[in-house]
Amino acid sequence: MRHLSLNQKINILSLVLIALSLLLVLWVNIGGVGFTYDSFDYYDAAKDLDQFFGGEAINGRIIRRPPFYPLIVSSFLWMNKSGLILLNMILYGINLFLSFKISNRICEDSHLKWVAVLCISFSATLHLIHVFAWTEPLVLCTVLLQLVLLFDNKTEKNYSLVILLGVISVLTKNGAMLLIPGIALVIFVMGKGSKKWIVPILYLALCWASYDIWNDLIDSPSVSDIVSEKRGISLEYLNVLSVWIMPLKVPVYVRYSAVILLLFFIGFLTLKNAHLFDLQLISLSLFLVSYVLLRSYYSDIYFHEAERYLSIVYPVFIIILLKILSFIKLYQRQILTRIYYGFCVYLVIYSIARAIKNDYQWISDRLFL
């Protein structure tokens, strides 16, 4: 190891830690895939697709859920519940790979890429969704794949696939409809010529129509019904964002204050360095803000469920946070640079510690903290 450069040592250590992350998620899955009320619906639907699609009762109840996840699960049922472990691990591996591709696009600095990769690999939030029989890993996969395709140099050739993935996402989870406006914004920002306007509108229309057609078949609320309901902003999502950067045991007013100050600081760096924002960073930021605001407005829920729903944008959150904060280095002041690198080290250590703690807690007590 002595003949290796510092960068090579960092790369090797990072790869070892990523492998450890995969083993942790596998270990927790082997201990038992988590089931909640909706998990039982999807699993039962997957076991009897004919009755599910026929609208017939399964185990004494009519299951009104989107159809795509049961279809995927059904192809793994030959392994019984072990198939769910395999599905979770496949989706976890794909989601890590796609997250890394996006971080490589956004983060030029090699150290910054590894910080993003490690924070994403050891995200307690991502570990959480990949050890339950939940739709979030599949939705996350469709979202990340759409972003990768839209950031590709041959964006226009990928539009049909992006639209198909958008339709799949809303037919996987009802709440995925809240992701669609953000993706439409990404299409608009990254687009060129007349397609800049046409494709986002077509994307929105087809996703909306797919959602409404399926929900009409199963007698569930349409998009118009949901939009017409009176709502209010939920602060539980701000609570989740605060826990992504500091422990839950820290008093809530301290965490809220820290997040608000961080947001103001990010806003300051954004205004001062707006000329450094490329289209990819702009579109990612619009996507993140759109989804968080829509989620906060349309669902008032408790903490753990809020973290589950926000998990879909965790990789984007980390990449944007690290990228914008890296602008601190442009001021060429040693103290500011040290604070930035200190925050990066802290974020990696905190992410690893929280992930390991929650993984162990799940195995021992079947609880997430």
Structural write-up:
This protein is 70% helix and 0% strand. By secondary structure, it is mainly alpha-helical. The protein has one domain (19-365). Helix 8 packs antiparallel against helix 9.
Provide the fold topology.
Elements lengths: L5 H26 L5 H11 L1 H5 L14 H7 L7 H25 L3 H12 L2 H6 L6 H15 L8 H12 L9 H11 L4 H23 L5 H6 L7 H8 L8 H21 L6 H20 L4 H8 L3 H12 L8 H32 L4
Structure characteristics:
mainly alpha, globular, 369 residues, 18 helices, 70% helix
Helix content: over 70%
Report the sheet with the most strands, covering strand number, pairing sense and barrel closure. Answer: none
Rg of Cα set: 21 Å
Domains counted in the coordinates: how many? 1
Write down the secondary-structure element order.
HHHHHHHHHHHHHHHHHH
Shape: globular
- What class would the helix/strand composition place it in? mainly alpha
Low-confidence stretches: none
**How many angstroms does the end-to-end distance come to?**
38 Å
Task: Please state the average pLDDT score.
Answer: 87
